[in-house]
Amino acid sequence: MKSYLVPVIIILSALSVRAGEEAFIRGPLESGFYIGPEAKVCLVLDEFEIFAGGRAGWIINHKFSVGAAAYKMVSERSIRYIPPMGDYIFPDISMSYGGILLEYIHNSDRIEHFSLDMIIGIGSISLHEDRFITVHEQDNYFIVEPGANFILNFAKHLRVGIGFGYRLAYDVEFGYIDNEDLTGGSFKIFIKLGKF
Fold it and tell me: Which of 41, 60, 128, 192 has a beta carbon 3.0–4.6 Å from 34's, enabling a disulfide?
């Protein structure tokens, strides 16, 4: 029986020696959360389009957030398209994207503060006749979108922010539309409701 205690004592001794090391998260873990709507103006095919969506996250020690974000293009946009058989038409573009949202929050207890975030996920683009009836083409792709935000604490459970981002699209195979066409900058405004 004593032989089983030896490795346990060694492990506990090692942990006690390393307890003084620095780490991002030290001491008791404090948790919070938020959810809220967001609007974006994003560059798509060399023109700015309006996206609507939202974000939500679990806040760790007032500094880090892990959550999700999703957006859909709500402005109307048509392009010239030639189907495999027939004359060219002008279908509407439908585009959406979302994924995991990681965020670092600096001095969240101050009225004015900033954060750095990144979305890692997938997107979808399709061409529709009569907006949503006939789908001519559809493609999924990967996105990475880093960003920076300026945030104001309006109330204990309410924060409002603006920010800039840059969406990087990968593996786009959609006719003549490629990665560069779906890569571009964005401006955003958002609201956070929750426990910070």
Answer: 192
In a domain, 6, yes or no: no
**Considering the domain boundaries, does residue 177 fall inside one?**
yes
- For residue 39, what are its two tokens? 């609007």
Kindly report the CATH number assigned to the domain that includes residue 80: 2.40.160.20
Tokens 């593996």 correspond to: 171
Q: Within the chain, which residues score under 70 in pLDDT?
A: 1-27, 80-90, 129-136
Looking at residue 20, what DSSP letter applies?
G
On whether residue 77 sits in a domain, the answer given is yes
Asked, for residue 111, whether it belongs to a domain, the answer is yes
Instruction: Catalogue the E-assigned strands of the chain.
Output: 31-44, 47-60, 64-73, 92-106, 112-129, 134-155, 158-170, 184-195
Q: What are 154-168's pLDDT values in tens digits?
A: 999 999 999 999 999
**Residue 108 lies in domain:** 29-195
Q: Take residue 80 and report the two structure tokens written for it.
A: 């010239």
How many domains are contained in the chain?
1
- Kindly give, in sequence order, each residue whose CB lies less than 8 Å from that of residue 101, ignoring residues fewer than 6 positions away: 55, 57, 65, 66, 67, 68, 69, 117, 118, 119
